[in-house]
Design goal:
With about 130 residues, the protein is mostly beta strands. About 10% of the residues lie in helices and about 40% in strands. The protein has one helix and eight strands, in the order αββββββββ.
Length: about 130
C-alpha cells in the first residue's frame, strides 16, 4: 500500500493534496487520457510525463483481499491484524488499499466498496470500506 507521504512531492503533490482532503482522485495522462493509480513519474500507457489529477466517483468493487495476521517489523506492526485489498475503481484502475470498517469474515470478492479517508496508525490515508 502506498502511503501519500511516501510519494515524492515533485510529481504527486496535486494528488497528495486532494487525497489528503478526502477527495477520491487518480492520476491522468494529459497526452493519452489514460488514468492510473497510484501516482507515478510517467504514464504506464504511453510513457508521457504530462500527468494531472482527476476526481473519480470513489466507487469500486473488491477484487481480492488478505487479512494480515503477522508481518516483519514495520510501521504497521502495531496495527495487526488488518485487511489489505485490491479494489477495482469504477473508472478502471486497480488499487492496493487498506479495507476498514468491516470484519474480514464479511468481505466477499465483487463486494461494492467506497473510498474514504481513514486514520491508519496516526496517518490519514485513502482507504475503502463496504458501500
Amino acid at each position: 500500500m502506498t502511503h501519500p507521504d511516501s510519494i515524492p512531492p515533485h510529481f504527486a503533490a496535486a494528488w497528495r493534496e486532494r487525497a489528503a482532503a478526502g477527495e477520491a482522485v487518480v492520476q491522468k495522462c494529459t497526452t493519452c487520457n489514460e488514468i492510473q493509480m497510484h501516482p507515478r513519474r510517467r504514464c504506464t500507457a504511453c510513457g508521457s510525463d504530462k500527468l494531472g489529477v482527476e476526481g473519480v466517483s470513489g466507487e469500486a468493487t473488491l477484487y481480492t483481499f488478505s487479512v494480515i495476521l503477522r508481518n516483519a517489523p514495520s510501521d504497521f506492526q502495531d496495527q495487526l491484524p488488518y485487511t489489505l485489498g485490491i479494489v477495482q475503481l469504477r473508472e478502471g484502475p486497480r488499487m492496493l488499499t487498506r479495507i476498514v470498517d468491516c470484519e474480514p469474515e464479511r468481505l466477499r470478492c465483487d463486494m461494492p466498496m467506497r473510498w474514504i479517508l481513514a486514520d491508519v496508525g496516526g496517518r490519514s490515508m485513502p482507504c475503502f470500506r463496504p458501500a
